[in-house]
Design brief:
The chain is an all-alpha fold. The protein is built from 11 helices and no strands. The radius of gyration is 18 Å and the shape is globular.
Length: 274
Amino acid sequence: MSVLIAVAALPCGLLIGLLLGALGGGGSVLAVPALVYVLGQSPHEATAGALVVVTVGAVTGLVCHARAGRVRWAAGTAFGALGTAGSYLGSRWSAALDPTVLMAAFAGLMLVVAAMLLLRGRRAARGADGAAPLGVPVPQGAGAATPTRTRPARVAATASAVGLLTGFFGVGGGFVVVPALTLVLGLEMPVAIGTSLLVILINSLTALGTRAGAGTLDWPLLAGFAACAAVGSNLGNRLTARLHPQALTTAFAGLVTVLAVAMAAVALPHLWVP
């Protein structure tokens, strides 16, 4: 690892952490492009290394939400455990995939994330998400107030799909986990957000353990990258009250879209080269 790359890793990690803290999710999708195009990692190394950032971000956020009573430990642990098989399979599948195909698929994922962020921003503007401020505790009885009939097969399938997403792309997948927890388990939005971090942590640790055995991780680089992301996440949480969330979400969605189009423009032509 050169000194130049090590220095470049610090602001990249800080920026991604700021976005994670300010937006409450989605920022980790920038980790893979940053690792590939700025820090010189291969696509396989980047999707594995991004899991380190996801894990650190999940731990940081989980502590904050747990203090506010927003985490349902039993439900989150069960949902995460059901996703470990998918996370393992996704990691193995990703490692065996052609790097160009992997980056093209990741560009498609980024477009989906951008669309989800725009939808969330519009719902937040209408006051539809119902999330309480981060520092306001949620009563222990809350979070399961929405009646729903839990179907074991549906829960298992959804959890496996979430794990597959984390293992394959190296992202937390909060944009999928939160709706899954609200629709499948009936958790209210504030608690679903906090509990999703526990699910993400379990899946990312499983995927990271699977990938770490391959010996392709640049641990010194990733340690600095993830540490700066953790610092940025804390700063982002503190800045949230001073920022306009809808404008920030819209701007970030635009950035993700531009990066996705650029990545697709680089990757797609190579898919048709004989």
